[in-house]
Structures are given as structure tokens and as C-alpha cells.
Specification:
Layout: H1 5-10, H2 13-20, H3 41-58, H4 61-68, H5 72-86, E1 91-94, E2 97-100, H6 102-128, E3 135-140, H7 148-157, E4 164-169, H8 172-181, E5 186-189, E6 198-207, E7 209-213, E8 223-225, E9 233-237, H9 242-253, E10 259-264, H10 267-275, E11 281-283, E12 293-299, E13 304-312, H11 319-330
Parallel strand pairs: 3-4, 3-5, 8-12, 9-10
Antiparallel strand pairs: 1-2, 5-13, 6-13, 7-11, 7-12
Length: 338
């Protein structure tokens, strides 16, 4: 938060550079993140908090400087400017030793909590990036959750047994949004997206079938032209789902607009609606055959959906993400179970 009025005028921005410009090793210190505005308390105080906590712990400037491996002059100067900027005495000086004032004790409690959070955050991101035991945030379509993705992860973990996964099932557009938001590293989706901020690679394709009730007039057939279902009620996924877009496009190609009776969010629910006699559907093959329905091969047009992997362009990969991406790309043409 940026302070206003007289407090803001006490913030000495030039002292920030003096405190952290050089360390004992002569290396330039890290520049604060861009989101920390120059006039904010966080930008001003963050470099000095560890110094403050170190001196508070040892109650001795020289000893704290030795433990933190910084010049004593740098440490002393940082503490003086910290107190000047706050307008509060944090330490009482007793020759070579110091002790916290009441204000210093209050400040220390919050500083230790803040530094503890930073430590935990650093350990968390380092753990997630560990080549052997890091984490991959992976999104995929609902229709790939029962068989395809478990099989992929099992095969990948044969060589990477300790890598962890954060798994998200959703429809394609929602996963792309989460990819852009940084919630996902990779996602398996369909159709394969084409956007300037994404990289996408086609991995496989899946034939779609016309699913009809087992007592339907077409149920005795093996193959069917989609145009033969032009007068049927369709059960489909909701708008926004990739499979819904493919269904609409295939029906248009066949010369009709589907008459949608029911919309759902999951392919197996649609199969249940078909089994109940509530319509027909264009769906990928089921993981397990569903009683009450017949699945017909669609002829006369290419009724398939392409499956691809997508990631954010220019986004650096951690070692676990890079390994899993390489694995997925190696499965091109054999991503789906036989």
C-alpha cells in the first residue's frame, strides 16, 4: 500500500539503492518485482526485513553481520534507514549490543511471519520445479479421464516415478482460459486450438460414432450416413464444448442443422439419455460398452475429432513439465488406447 501525506514524504527511495546496491561479494542485488511500486512500504522495506530480523535474533550487529555474511557497515546503515523511514526506534543501543524496543517487538512478530511465508513460498516453487519430484499441472477433456489419461500417466511414471500431477478435467475453452491464467502447464484438448499466444501440436484423432437407442430404426445397421439422422432429436454437449462445435459442423456438412433436445456436460450422460430413447448423439467411443445403445460408423464424411496438446507460447517449462511435454509429443499417433 502506498502511504500518503507526511508518511509518504519520509520514504527515502535513494536509500533503497544504497542499502542493496552492493554486497560484500560485489554482486548487484536483485531488483524488486515490477508490481512493487517505488513509493510503497513493501518496496522500501523488503530488502531490510531480513537484516532487521537477524539483528533482533542475535541482539548484536557484528554477530548478525557475520551470520548473514554482509559487511557490518551495510547492516548498520540499513537498520538506521529502516528506523528513519518508519519514524520509530526499533532498537535500544547498548554499546556493541542492541535490544528491541516495544515497537521493535511488535514489528518483529509481523516480520517473522512475512519472512516465514517467503521461505515457504520459495521452498514450494523449488519443490514443484525439482526434476525428479516436481509437479505438472495438466488439464484434459472429460472424455479422456477414464482411460486415456490414467494410461498416459502410468506410462510416463515408469521413468519418472516421483513426479506429481495436479489434474484438471474440463471442456476445451475453459482449459485454454486456465492455461492463459497460468493455472495449467499443458492441456489435452479438441479441437486443436489455433491462437497466436498458444503452441499446439496435433497428437491423434478419434472417430466419432452416431449413437442410437438399441430399438431405434437404424440400430440394425453397421454404418450410416449422417444425413439419415437429419430428422432425429439430438442430445449434445453444451455450446462452448469442442465436441458440440464438431457436431454442429458435421451436421451442417451433411446438409442439416441438428434439432437439439437435450444439452449436457459429459459424454457418458449423453449416452444415458440416448439409451433412454431421448435422442441420438455423435460421440467418441466409450471406455466401456454401454447397454441400451448401438454405435454406428458414420460414412460419407470424415467424422473425427483431432486431439492435441497445447501450452502457452514463450512460457518457460520447469524440468518436470518439459519431461512430460516431450513424453506426450512422443505419443503422436498412438495417444489413444486401442
Amino acid at each position: 500500500m502506498v502511504h500518503e501525506g507526511s508518511s509518504a514524504r519520509r520514504l527515502s527511495q535513494s536509500s533503497y539503492a544504497k542499502d542493496i546496491g552492493k554486497s560484500g561479494g560485489g554482486r548487484e542485488a536483485a531488483v524488486p518485482p515490477a508490481e512493487l511500486t517505488p513509493g510503497s512500504w513493501s518496496a522500501l522495506l523488503s530488502p531490510r526485513l531480513a537484516y532487521f530480523a537477524g539483528v533482533a535474533r542475535t541482539e548484536h550487529v557484528t554477530r548478525a553481520a557475520q551470520e548473514m555474511q554482509v559487511p557490518q557497515s551495510t547492516l548498520s546503515r540499513a537498520l538506521v534507514r529502516l528506523e528513519q523511514d518508519l519514524g520509530v526506534d526499533l532498537f535500544a543501543r547498548h554499546g556493541r549490543t542492541v535490544s528491541l524496543t516495544p515497537a521493535g517487538r511488535t514489528f518483529l512478530a509481523s516480520v517473522e511471519r512475512a519472512l516465514g511465508e517467503v521461505e515457504r513460498a520459495a521452498e514450494s516453487v523449488r519443490a514443484d520445479a525439482d526434476p525428479a519430484s516436481g509437479k505438472v499441472a495438466f488439464g484434459f477433456l472429460h472424455t479422456m479421464g477414464s482411460e486415456t489419461v490414467p494410461g498416459l500417466i502410468r506410462a510416463f511414471r515408469a521413468d519418472h516415478p516421483r513426479i506429481r500431477f495436479s489434474l484438471v478435467q474440463n471442456y476445451g475453452e475453459a482449459m485454454i482460459e486456465r492455461l492463459r491464467a497460468g493455472d495449467l502447464d499443458l492441456c489435452l484438448t479438441s479441437p486443436v486450438p489455433d491462437a497466436p499466444d498458444l503452441v499446439a501440436r496435433r497428437l491423434d484423432e478419434q472417430r466419432l460414432r452416431l449413437v442410437v437407442p438399441d430399438d431405434h430404426r437404424l440400430a440394425a445397421r453397421k454404418r450410416v450416413r449422417l444425413a439419415e439422422a437429419a430428422d432425429e432429436a439430438f442430445v449434445t454437449l453444451e455450446p462452448g464444448y469442442g465436441l458440440r462445435r464438431i457436431t454442429d459442423d458435421l451436421c451442417q456438412e451433411a446438409g442439416f442443422k441438428p434439432r437439439v433436445a437435450f444439452e449436457g456436460e459429459e459424454a457418458e450422460t449423453l449416452r444415458g439419455l440416448v439409451a433412454a430413447g431421448l435422442g441420438v448423439a455423435l460421440l467418441p467411443p466409450p471406455a466401456v460398452p454401454r447397454p441400451g445403445v448401438v454405435e454406428l460408423t458414420v460414412t460419407g464424411q470424415r467424422a473425427v475429432r483431432e486431439i492435441g496438446v497445447a501450452w502457452l507460447d514463450g512460457h518457460p517449462d520447469t524440468p518436470p513439465v518439459a519431461a512430460f511435454k516431450k513424453f506426450l509429443l512422443s505419443r503422436r499417433g498412438r495417444l489413444l488406447p486401442e
